[in-house]
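fyi for ur records
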Amino acid sequence: MEPLNENIYPEVRAQIGRPLKFKPEQILAKFKEYVQWCKDNPITLRTTVDAIAANGTHYGNTTTEEKPRLVSIGGFLVFLGASRQWWDQLDTNRTRQQDFLAVKGFIRDFCEEYQKEMASSGLFNGNIISRLLGLADKKQVEATGEGITIVVANAEQKTKIENISELDV
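which gave:
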């Protein structure tokens, strides 16, 4: 299926009515297709710089850069045309529960490791990835001292850090 344009997912295949029916091995095969699609369809960034030369000539310079596409469970669900609810209920079938749990676990671990590696290499923004993976609190407060900045999760922790010098040790 051809993407709508080079920067978004293929045409949305949302299922309305009966839920998708997949065996665990079929979900894994579809995930491999999704990962390959992400590799084959990087996000294209175009930057145009307009300038005027000394003689008054107007010209522009456009640069194009490709960035890898984020591999994520949410992206995989969009690729499948499935919902988060469908995904969450996959392993409720008692007869195949362990098979679905194993496949879902593999997909989750693959996405997390991929995101960490891309963030640590500088290809993805580390702050965004840490929030996606739940490694950072979405509401952070900074407590600043002499040349030191400590990021804490909330105002209560900020107060504790600010009052640490008053502790009797």
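The CA atoms of residues 143 and 161 lie 7 Å apart. thats all i got for now
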